[in-house]
Amino acid sequence: MSSAHVVIIGGGIAGQAAAESVLAGCAHGAVSVTIVAAEATAPYDRVRLSELLTDSLGAGDLALRPAEWYADHDVKLRTGVAATAVNTAERTVRLSDATVLAYDALVLATGSVPLLPRLPGIDLPHVHAFRVPADCAAIGAAARPGVRAAVIGGGLLGLEAARGLVARGAAVTVVHLLNRLMERQLDAGAAEMLLPKLEALGVTVALERDTVEITPDALCFGDGSRLGADLVVVSIGIRPQVALARGAGLQVARGIVVDDWLATSAAGVWALGECAEHAGTVHGLVAPIHDQARVLGAAVNHALGGTGPRPGPYRGSLPWAKLKVAGIDLVAIGAAEGDAEAISADTGAGVYRKLVVADGRAAGAVLLGDIRGHEALLAEIGAATEVSDPLERLAAAAALTVAELPDDAQICNCNGVCKGTLLAAVQIDGCGTPREVMARTRAGTGCGSCRAAVVEIVTAAGGASVEPHFLCACARQTRESVAAAIRQERLGSVSEVAARLGTGRECGACKPALAYLVSELNDNRHREERHARFINDRVHANIQNDGSFSVVPRMYGGVTTPDELRRIADVAERYGVRMVKVTGGQRIDLLGVAKADLPKIWRELDMPSGHAYAKAVRTVKTCVGADFCRFGIGDSVGLGIELEHAWEGLHTPAKVKSGVSGCPRNCAEATVKDVGLVAVEGGWQVRVGGAAGATVREGDILATVTTRPEAIRLATAFLQLYREEADYRERTYDYVPRVGLERIQTLLMDPNRVATLLERFRIAKAAVLDPWLEREHPYHDRQFDDLDPITAEPQPGGLSTPRIELVGPPTGGTR
Fold this sequence. Notes:
The chain is an alpha/beta fold. Helix content is 30%, strand content 21%.
């Protein structure tokens, strides 16, 4: 097997799962893998696609693995290039860039394409499929408050798309051909109860509507009625992508025909996922992909001469789905109807629970509003367990704790992880906490709905319920251990740390924390690698729930000028800013800005960034102070402006909100800020660790000093101590109680320690540049494009992180 080469065509979930399964069954280095993906991005979690419409995510945030994972596992990832022909006799694959790849084993994971009806108007520019991130970008750009949006298709994806459009302020109608939603998964009773839940979220549903034409402003139905629509999203199903297989002479029916080991009709070629047809069935859900991948990986390794036993056959998968719409709990498993049915319904509470029995065995379940016990029912339906009393069994499932589930109960649908795998991670592999188990098994790293169950199982298995502060859970590395290595070896970039320590190379979730740590320990004199940052930090603006951005220019101490106000007004009108809002921090926020317009707006404003998007020092809120207020006893405006200039642009473990109040009446709310200064008789009171969000915490009094310079010096020393010691994303109101106010006071009463902290602060501050200056020199060519590529960017002058190769066109061809 030393020279075996496996080529996988398709860069979706199926292609990634196949690669990992093949690699898991062989010795390291025994096989090399090439993944050929037509999309311009690395494999991403398509299950979470709707989150691009509803959450503050970029396409890169859905990546299944970081770039380093592919290099570590000898996987060559070819993105943006399509496979155009397969020669099964010569065992070669021709790519769209004229490259020819030889293979010992070929896996087809070409997936599917959206099914579009042949309607007049289907090719109009306001009509979109809902399948890839580019679709989400186009839909998001069109979905704005007041837009009339129609979703054709009332299945899982259609409803998820509708929820995303509502989140963006559009008026949404779901148009469905049949008389009930999700007819493949739900019976009439559950579908009827689903309707008011959707309406409560702002989604209108029109059933039994036969769309016959799409015009520029409406849908036309077979009965002659019309529905006004400025935006149309089509989600009526998928069609297996089989053209490549058919061209290679493989047996193709609806999908690529495979046997019980996922082998096709050609020697050395396997297929899985939405392109494969097994026993007459093509699966369009994610769970079967992982079932198939496990068998396929073993089969490929066995065929290549591996020493393991011949794998067991694939006997099909139980279809089940979970609706990912916030506010609606819905799980549908197997058959929706059968010989016997036990139903428990509470119309008033919106709860519908049903167990379906066929030939005396569990065959299906529908759970709406109360999905307790769905893991147990999934295992029993998959095993066709005998059921003598369906109603009793339905009630018993609701009473089961997760720890009581059988080992074969599937806990994580996104990554196909069962309870037994979680137990093995603790009891055999030595994982001690839920985060370690999640990092090892990938359970809970998809949509996240199973995380509570993972925690319960790990704790019951003997794992710790309290998480250690690992920076990298995959490698079990603490912040302290990584920081020590960075200092000792003078590591100056995320990629250098990853290459030396392995940090962030497995799942990549810790990269933003690592990016902060590298910058902080190097006093901002590090080599910046923007791919490791969150989307907000990559474009220096705060992403909103509709995919647009907000721009908050800095106004020192909340003070502005007529000229600045004119510029803000002009920019808001010129670029169609949807909302101009005075923030709680006494700034003006421009909301609804397109990503591509950010550099132009920054240039025309000609004001510095307020860092409202970043884990950084935010602006300093002030009251009017002694100059104007009859109660004021201190110059809060002057001190606030001086403090803001001193701290401006520094990144911190989490956002830092500050305030300066000119008297104990506390109009600037300084007592509930991360750092607050309050004027009192005889000086200034310095408070730290305050909070005024979901949890309210009065800031602790660090000290009371007599002069303004003393107040700034002490507050700055605390800020630097927090920058150096706090865990990433740990707010001051968690940090202060964790380490103890008394310890902080002791450290900051030591003149030598304070001098050291302030010197490191000055060095870091000297390296700060206004990030909005990147308007003139973008970090990379596509920094402000609608699609932020899932890629790692090599840096000159040192170790670089492996790059995901971008070759050929960004879209089109075989997925």
